[in-house]
Structure formats: C-alpha cells, structure tokens
Amino acid sequence: MFSDLVNELTIEERLSHAQLMVAVASVDGELVLEELIMIESIMGKSMLHPEMRVDVRNTLSHPVELEKSMEMLSKRGKQLALRDAIMVSACDGEYDKKEIRVIAKIAKLAGVEKTKLSQLYEWVSEYWECFNKSSTIFD
Q1: What residue segments make up the domains of the chain, in order of their start?
Q2: Which of 69, 92, 85, 77 lies closest to 120, judged by CA?
Q3: Which pLDDT tens digits describe the chain residue by residue (139 residues)?
Q4: CATH number belonging to domain 5-136
Q5: Are 46 and 38 in contact (CB under 8 A)?
Q6: pTM for this structure?
Q7: What is the 3-state secondary structure (H, E, C) of 70-88?
C-alpha cells in the first residue's frame, strides 16, 4: 500500500483507529475474511507495534465502543476513520444496513456533511473498481 495520512496520527490515535475498524467490521455480527485482511492491512500501514496489533486482534470478539474510539481521535483522525470505515464496509462487496448506520454515526461525530460523505462513498467505489481491474491483467 501507499504511504497514508494515518501515519501522521499519534500512536494512540492509530491504535484507536484500528480498534474502530474492528467495531465497524463486526457491527453486522459477522467478520468475513476480506474485512480481516483489510484490518490487518490498516494495522500494517499504520505501523502499529506487533503487541498493539495483538491488542487490536483481541477486540475482534469484543469490539471497543465506537464513541470511545472516536473520543481518542483528532479531527483529522476522525475524518480518516470515516474514510477507512467505508473501505472496510465495502471490501466484502456490499454495505450492510448496520454498517451504513455506523458510518453515518462516524460522519456525524467527525462533523462531516452529507455531500462530503457522498464523495467518500464515490471515491471508495472508484478505488475498488480500479483495484479490481488489476485482476484482469493476467487473464
């Protein structure tokens, strides 16, 4: 993956960010392989220490409260959490109603208006479309 703005957050914010992604992925009651891969990827790009990654993995069965994770984040951290929450929710190919509600809640807590939220959904859609094109190169 490319370098990411998440790396500019404090280590505490990066940990909260990763824990928040677990909460988003598990909100529908089911963690699928694609979501787990995305969470591992986020922890990798965030340069979380291996022990912190274990802490995040331990929240898979008992996710941290959304509001608690959001409180730990700066304004920029909340915006990046919103972006990545949409990515995590989209990675299995569909948005569950519960995921959409939690994304809307994150947007509200981050102070992101609906037009910006729509732009993020569009960006994620374009990202996945571009990413999936790579699978046709070697066919």
Answers
A1: 5-136
A2: 85
A3: 556 889 899 999 999 999 999 999 999 888 899 999 999 999 998 999 999 999 999 998 889 999 989 999 999 999 999 999 999 999 988 899 999 999 999 999 999 999 999 999 999 999 888 888 888 888 7
A4: 1.10.3680.10
A5: no
A6: 0.91
A7: HHCCCHHHHHHHHHHHHHH
Structure tokens given for 64: 């941290």
How many Å apart are CA 58 and CA 15, to the nearest integer?
13
